[in-house]
Design brief:
Length: 453
């Protein structure tokens, strides 16, 4: 419900500025957009203005906002058992049911589930699992982690070090040792590959890195199947199968960071199924509850699970492991995805949205439009022939689109990215495309948006 009086809205904004630390908010920014309601793909702010959510918050609102059916499940679970620990021998019926559900929809080789409160926790757990797995199997020297430039694996120290952006390291050092970063699988940036086939180049680089570090010293390689924050980078089809082959040959675990891609975002339950690979560990969060409550789940193979549970068990736990209310919400959310055919819808509405976004290729600053399912990127360039990126993607560009059109998009690595709820309609997709065109057609190759005539 909107706040009735402007003074009430300003009071909220003032209190926010006085007390809340926002991630990535420049100090000079005083504006606050205070959301108070949501339904489907739309949001309403405290002024009563309606927005089209073309980002799904942070890649996660699979079933849309404001679902009464999920609210009822959460309320009933809170009335029954809101929380109890899952440490030691304790468990609860909803966590057990959710683990069984996840194993049933996951690739067949994944048999065990470790619950977290979100993606950053999940990646911390996955890195520790990989190292601990080798430790338990008599190879404690296997502690190196291979990651990639332009990767994003959360904000913990393990996952944060694996993240391949200096901005996430500056001021937080020293970062975790024994992490190596490789070239991202970004076909559009052909200059990265010295004129070679991208996958051939990347596999040779991976093999050379393994040789340099020593395969006996490497625990795992972690990677997003599709790189989200890096700009929705889609690798060549043969990339992940060939990476898997190299890793297996050298006894190195493969960690798939599916925090963004899992639970329907790419049109399948998991991107591992899309790329036809079998990771040893898959990290998930976000879409598991569509954001209704915080929850994450790390899925592992029988071999990894056995080593973690051997002897005195896995010596790592979070307070909210297996939270019964979160698990109940996840079960309801997954049932909605299933019953409403949202895996298939991600493919159909995703293709429709992509077709609309491709029309933006007639603009001189649009270099490439790429997608998988409901993950979309419009990469912006200053020169289409050389594919030179804009000197700096105007940080106000998504803000201008929001203010002028009421459509919320996000900027990532010289690209505008969209990851809407899977319930988006064709009319809403058309609105998103029209909103982006209305601003991008006034944006120069220097990233400056010119005033509307």
């Amino acid at each position: 419900m909107a706040v009735d009086m402007t003074v009430g809205v300003e009071a909220l904004a003032s209190a926010d500025r006085a007390h809340i630390i926002h991630p990535y908010l420049p100090a000079a920014t005083t504006e606050r957009v205070i959301m108070t309601a949501g339904k489907g793909c739309t949001l309403t702010d405290a002024d009563g203005r309606e927005y089209l959510d073309a980002t799904g918050g942070l890649w996660l609102a699979q079933v849309g906002h404001g679902r009464e059916d999920i609210a009822e499940v959460a309320a009933e679970q809170i009335r029954t058992l809101e929380y109890f620990t899952s440490f030691w021998e304790f468990s609860n019926d909803k966590a057990i049911a959710l683990a069984e559900k996840l194993v049933s929809i996951a690739p067949d080789h994944l048999t065990h589930v470790y619950f977290t409160s979100g993606g950053s926790e999940g990646n911390e757990a996955a890195i520790k699992m990989a190292r601990f797995h080798h430790f338990r199997n008599g190879e404690p020297e296997r502690n190196w982690i291979i990651a990639r430039d332009k990767a994003y694996h959360g904000v913990g120290y393990g996952g944060g070090t694996a993240t391949g952006f200096e901005v996430y390291h500056d001021g937080f050092g020293p970062m975790m040792p024994h992490v190596a970063h490789l070239t991202p699988p970004w076909p559009y940036r052909s200059e990265l590959f010295d004129g070679q086939d991208p996958t051939d180049f990347l596999i040779a680089e991976l093999e050379a890195t393994i040789e340099r570090i020593g395969p006996q010293n490497i625990a795992a390689m972690i990677g997003e199947p599709i790189m989200g924050v890096g700009g929705m980078i889609v690798p060549p089809d043969d990339y992940w199968p060939r990476v898997q082959e190299v890793l297996r040959k050298n006894g190195i675990l493969m960690i798939f960071d599916e925090v963004v891609t899992a639970y329907g975002r790419v049109g399948k339950w998991f991107a591992a199924q899309h790329f036809n690979v079998e990771p040893d560990i898959i990290v998930t969060a976000k879409g598991i509850t569509s954001g209704y409550v915080p929850l994450g789940a790390v899925l592992v193979t029988e071999a990894v699970g056995e080593s973690l549970m051997r002897d005195s068990g896995f010596p790592m736990g979070y307070t909210y492991n297996g939270h019964p209310t979160a698990a109940a919400v996840a079960l309801a959310n997954l049932e909605i995805i299933e019953n409403e055919g949202l895996l298939e819808r991600a493919l159909t509405i995703g293709a429709y949205l992509h077709a609309g976004l491709r029309t933006l290729l007639d603009l001189p600053i649009v270099g490439e439009v790429r997608y998988v399912g409901m993950m979309h990127a419009v990469e912006l360039v200053s020169d289409r022939d050389t594919r030179a990126p804009l000197p700096m993607l105007n940080p106000m560009l998504p803000d201008i689109i929001r203010r002028e059109t009421g459509v919320i998009v996000r900027d990532c690595a010289h690209s505008l990215v969209l990851s809407p709820p899977l319930v988006m309609t064709e009319e809403q997709a058309d609105r998103a495309v029209a909103a982006m065109r209305s601003v991008l057609e006034r944006t120069g190759t220097d990233g400056v948006v010119h005033s509307a005539s």
